[in-house]
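Input sequence (398 aa), recorded before submission:
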Amino acid sequence: MEFLKTNIVTYYFRKFIFKAKLIIENPSDWKYTMDIEPIRTQKGIVILSHESNRLGASLLAENIAKEMKRQGKDICILSRQFGELNDEYAQIAPLQVFLSKRKLNKIFLELKRAGYNNLLANTAVNGDCIRMANECGIKVVSLIHEMPDVIKQLKIENQLKEILDYSNYVVFPTNEMQEKITSNYGKVSNQQMVKPQGIYLQDVSQQKIFNASQILEERIRKRSGQRIVVGVGNTTSLKGFDYFLEMSRLAPAEILFVWAGKKESFYDTCIAKNKPPQNFVYLGKLTGADEMAALYTSADVLAMTSRVDTFPSVVLEAMKFGVPVIGFAESGGVSEVVENGVNGALIDTMGDTDAFLQAIINIIRNPNRYRTLSENAKKTALNYSFENYVSFLIGLFD
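Predicted structure, token format:
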């Protein structure tokens, strides 16, 4: 029991340090803690983001905000953290950063008076705000992106329960997640539904892609005849960066493994064990739509090595560019998009890098099969319209 208490204290101490670090690194964000004056409306929508770092859930919130505004909705954005995305949030709509629940209650009441009767809560981390919004008379649509293992890791079981009990609608990205969450944590009190999020990577001109590709080619320095396998995401254990690195060490020289994403401490841990193999390139974090488009254009295969990934947007982004995807079947949402032998391949056993690498080799060494997978990948991507996804969310409020 004493050990458990120590772990909890350590967890919350680290959480406090992390938030303090964000404040120190982003001092200009203090301006966003000031009260906002949104346009008065009748059916305004508040978008609640649990963080402002350039990560999947935050980028989803940003792009939902953009699309809702494009569809003519009055919106404002609330964030619980200082961070690099706040300036971008503020360019889309009025933004307020709150650092306490007491402040949030005041914000909800003021927004309600201004006609913002609807709240879109992004991720289960925001679950502790749902009851408060409900009691302020605000209609709540909650998006859950976390699988049960992540819920436990983040210690947000109570927040999730608040979502299930007090949201007007709970939206899951996959059937698998809906089933796992409700079987582990109980039924949704009101309405629940499944809706994949769609592709929010912005379209860019061929000229911009060409220019970005020229720069990318200089960094990658691919040898003649080499095929490129791409991994995307932060270099964490959760994203399976170690699996990706292991495959690059085992792969024949004809395959070049390229990883794009923010460097985390797990990167150094993996590299310290062995020197980086000659056919591995680390690009760092790519932020522009033109850079990502150039990356997918250069890729032959996307390797989704994640141990857990609810509904990885990079899978759909890669398929949009005709890139077949290989992933672990039990990792999460990838198995609801990737079909074995149709638009990619699924590996049955988590961590089976031998089978994963063999699937890569089988695809890239068979030109006819590759063409079929590539065309089917493009067709799959057409089914995931981000515009339709956001229209669906708006419809829940209307």
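Checked by second reader. The two ends are 49 Å apart (CA to CA).
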